[in-house]
Amino acid sequence: MKYSLEVSNLTKAYPGSDFRLDNVSFAVPQGSIMGFVGENGSGKTTTISCILNTLKPDSGVIKIFGEEMTDERTDIRDHIGVVFDAINFPEALTANKLASVFKDIYQHWDGGLFQHLLQRLQVPADTRIKDLSRGMTMKLATAAALSHGAKLLLLDEATSGLDPVVREEMLDLFLEFVEDEEHSILISSHITSDLEKIADYITFIHSGRIILTEDKDILLYQYGIARCTEDQFQSLDKSEYLSSRKRGFQVDVLISDKESFSRQHRDITVDNTTIDEIMLLLVKGDQ
Ligand SMILES: Nc1ncnc2c1ncn2[C@@H]1O[C@H](COP(=O)(O)OP(=O)(O)OP(=O)(O)O)[C@@H](O)[C@H]1O
């Protein structure tokens, strides 16, 4: 399998902070969308900043399109499109002015595509950025990220705070971006329903550590939550589940193969699960 992004044993500590990225490893296959989820402060932005080389990792290797990202490889950065939650475009500029700046910065800037995306997303090209709504600014940032020949998009909370209609438009664009099987996306988001719609894989991070990377369809269709009584739970072998969480008189148990579990335990109810529930059980439950 070819990978657009490979992160291996990445570590990063901040002076004066207890937080530490702890041997973070995961990979984004070419042509796919990887959802990156974790609670506030789990290390998503730190990881993405290290990938972008805007933050210097303490150790670890980051490969983009199979090549190691170093300070010198500015050419690789040209192929990475970025949309962050806090966009910091110069506020006095309009989208059209921004286009003339990007034309000089990016070797592969496609002005026609940028105008097409502005029209499609209904972003006014002659309004100053400071007068655009937050949704408009995020759409503008996305149009820019998609217009300089990027093959890998890094999206850090790019859809947070946007209404469902705008989010749907953005998700459609992301799906179209990866359609040719060459482009890939790493997207961090707290809106896990968005990731359920578009992601091919999900990586969970907790306290600076990767706790699970899995195919999304396996998570949604093969994983499950067994709703056990205390007695039923006590009868289970630890090898049969990933995590458990007591809730009143019930114990929720995360299992990785609900069909095989149900065959073994016909008396236990097993529900489908969601990315949110899996995260809760992995983070709050007992392993
Ligand atoms: N410059 C810094 N100096 C010290 N600590 C920092 C710095 N930047 C981030 N941190 C800490 O590192 C931890 C991880 O932060 P990070 O922004 O990577 O988390 P996140 O998963 O992106 O969170 P969120 O979902 O809230 O955006 C947090 O505890 C944060 O306070």
Describe the model:
The chain has 11 helices and 14 strands. The chain folds into 2 domains: 3-215, P-loop containing nucleotide triphosphate hydrolases (Rossmann fold, 3-Layer(aba) Sandwich); 222-284, no CATH class. The chain is α/β, with parallel strands linked by helices. Helix 3 packs antiparallel against helix 4 (111-120) and helix 4 packs antiparallel against helix 5. A hairpin with a 2-residue loop joins strand 4 and strand 5 (67-68). It has a 6-stranded mixed β-sheet, sandwiched between helices. Strands 2-1-4-5 form a 4-stranded antiparallel β-sheet, with helices on one face. GO terms for molecular function: ATP binding; ATP hydrolysis activity. This is ABC transporter.
- Mean pLDDT, rounded to whole units? 93
CATH-defined architecture of the largest domain: 3-Layer(aba) Sandwich
Radius of gyration: 21 Å
Report on the biggest sheet. Answer: 6 strands, mixed
| Strand arrangement, major sheet | 6-7-8-3-9-10
SS class? alpha/beta
Gross geometry: elongated
Ligand inventory: adenosine-5'-triphosphate
SSE order in H/E notation? Answer: EEEHEEHEHHHEHEHEEHEHEEHEH
CATH topology of the largest domain: Rossmann fold
Assess the beta-strand content as a share of residues. Answer: 25-35%
Corresponding CATH superfamily of the largest domain: P-loop containing nucleotide triphosphate hydrolases
Structure summary, number of beta strands = 14
Helices, by number, come to 11
Task: Give the fraction of residues assigned to helices.
Answer: 25-40%
Pfam family, one: ABC_tran
Protein name: ABC transporter
InterPro entries: AAA+_ATPase, ABC_transporter-like_ATP-bd, ABC_Transporter_VariousFunc, P-loop_NTPase
Domain ABC transporter: 5-232
